[in-house]
Amino acid sequence: MSSVVLSEVCEVPLKDLPLDNWMAHLPNALWDIPLCNLSIPGSHNAITYCLDKNDRSPVDLTQPDVLQKLDKYMKPLIRPFVYKWAIAQECTVTEQLDGGVRYCDLRIAHRPNDSSTDLYFYHGVYTAITVETVLKEIRDWLDAHPREVVILSFSHFLGLSQELHTMLISTIKNVFAAKLCPKSEPVTLRNLWSRGFQLIISYEHNVTNCHSDLWSHIPYWWANKCKAEALIEEFERRKQNGRPGGFFVTGINLTEDLKYICSHPTESLKDMVMSTYPVLLSWLKEQRPGSNTGSINIIAGDFVTESQFVPTVIALNEKLLKRTS
């Protein structure tokens, strides 16, 4: 590596880069490394900061029947618990992007008994704002940050007909247009910058086979654990079998079960997450991006702008900067 790059690394540690433009400020030794071999901070259930607080909005249809019945007949008692454990991010998508997030986990739904074609996000409850509104907000942010690249993962589709999938894809293409990166492109910062591509769309549906600018679903490692130590143990086990070949996500988001909720009646998802971040961040600092067995790529979590999560993930890319004698 040149002395220029080495001096950049020494003078400006990657954890201190401006979070709203950290990709643009990466040393040029990282510009030709595929993005699937970089360490990228992500947001799990990114659009849960705007869940619909209107009592007429039902809980989503993936929830257990007993919860749906309780919510229907005991809404004033049940709904506050639903919100406490459904909100995974409190910052808007613009604030998350400004805070360094470059991967967004988007769960898409069509509300039951809704005669319109509007689509929403959901996690326990549907959002109050539409998918199209959020996508335009992301486009506006990208316009103001031309050297940043964002990955949007559309998945967990709920209540979408083939017609609604077609409409959603049309909306994605209309909103982002020339920013969409085709599957055939080498995904390095240098190439994406030269071509003006800023967005990679992952879409969990076989319709991706018919669209050159829709990428297949990005694997998401989900440990399904409510304790940090158990989550780490699960990921260490998976790492021994090697990482997937392209993009993949390690989700350090904890998952509460009924037993945990009942034994912590005054807590919330945020309480659980923030109490475990010190352990999770210590583990994160030991990880390494790259193509080797055991390497990481995208790391997604909850309440990602409210800890040192994002700078910690970005700083892992320093391990890719090899000093030459």
Description:
With 325 residues, the protein is α/β, with parallel strands linked by helices. It has a single domain, classed as TIM Barrel (Alpha-Beta Barrel). The chain is 35% helix and 14% strand. The protein contains eleven helices and nine strands. It has helices at residues 3-11, 65-73, 75-86, 93-98, 131-144, 162-176, 189-195, 228-239, 258-263, 269-284, 309-315; strands at residues 40-43, 103-109, 120-123, 125-130, 150-158, 199-203, 220-222, 249-251, 298-301. Strands 1, 2, 3, 4, 5, 6, 7, 8 and 9 form a nine-stranded mixed beta sheet that branches. Strand 7, helix 8 and strand 8 form a beta-alpha-beta unit. The chain is globular. The N and C termini lie close together (9 Å). Residues 32-204 form the Phosphatidylinositol-specific phospholipase C X domain.
Give a quick summary of the entry.
By secondary structure, the protein is of the alpha/beta class.
What order do the helices and strands come in, and which of them pair?
Blueprint: H1 3-11, E1 40-43, H2 65-73, H3 75-86, H4 93-98, E2 103-109, E3 120-123, E4 125-130, H5 131-144, E5 150-158, H6 162-176, H7 189-195, E6 199-203, E7 220-222, H8 228-239, E8 249-251, H9 258-263, H10 269-284, E9 298-301, H11 309-315
Helix pairs in contact: 2-3, 5-6
Pfam family, one: PI-PLC-X
GO molecular function: phosphoric diester hydrolase activity
Organism: Clupea harengus
Features:
14% strand; alpha/beta; 9 strands; nine-stranded mixed β-sheet; 325 residues; TIM Barrel; 11 helices
Kindly report the average pLDDT value. Answer: 92
The total count of strands amounts to 9
Largest beta-sheet details: 9 strands, mixed
Shape: globular
CATH topology: TIM Barrel
How are helices and strands ordered from N to C? HEHHHEEEHEHHEEHEHHEH
Q: Give the helix/strand class.
A: alpha/beta
Helix content: 25-40%
Proportion of residues in extended strands = 5-15%
Rg, alpha carbons: 20 Å
Going by CATH, the homologous superfamily would be Phosphatidylinositol (PI) phosphodiesterase
Low-confidence stretches: 1-10
Number of separate domains: 1
> What is the level 1 CATH name?
Alpha Beta
CATH structural architecture: Alpha-Beta Barrel
Q: What is the count of helical runs?
A: 11
GO molecular function, one term: phosphoric diester hydrolase activity
Organism: Clupea harengus
Protein name: PI-PLC X domain-containing protein 1
Domain Phosphatidylinositol-specific phospholipase C X: 32-204
